[in-house]
Amino acid sequence: MPFDLRHSADLRQELVTAVREGGDLVLVDISESTVVDQVGFATLVAAHARAARAGRRLRYVGADERTTRLLRRAGLVRLLHETPSPALALRRRTVAV
């Protein structure tokens, strides 16, 4: 589903529910979505602000290149949850042994 004006109300409600029912860290998989317009982008940012007010951290996983670029340009790259690549995880495990 695209993050755009047409879908923003539904997406906003889903994000509100995720923040309300989530734990300290709420991970939202947006791998099958893309930010299409400024309303969609604002919806993502507003969800993050709502989570912060609730004392939770909200992060997005699976962002496409365009969404990542938009967040980076806005200085909001911290909204992305960085997961280590399998190679990095393997190197850490090797070093720890």
Automatic annotation (TrEMBL):
SUPFAM superfamilies: SpoIIaa-like (SSF52091). InterPro entries: MlaB-like_STAS, STAS_dom, STAS_dom_sf. Residues 1-97 form the STAS domain. This is STAS domain-containing protein. It comes from Janibacter indicus.
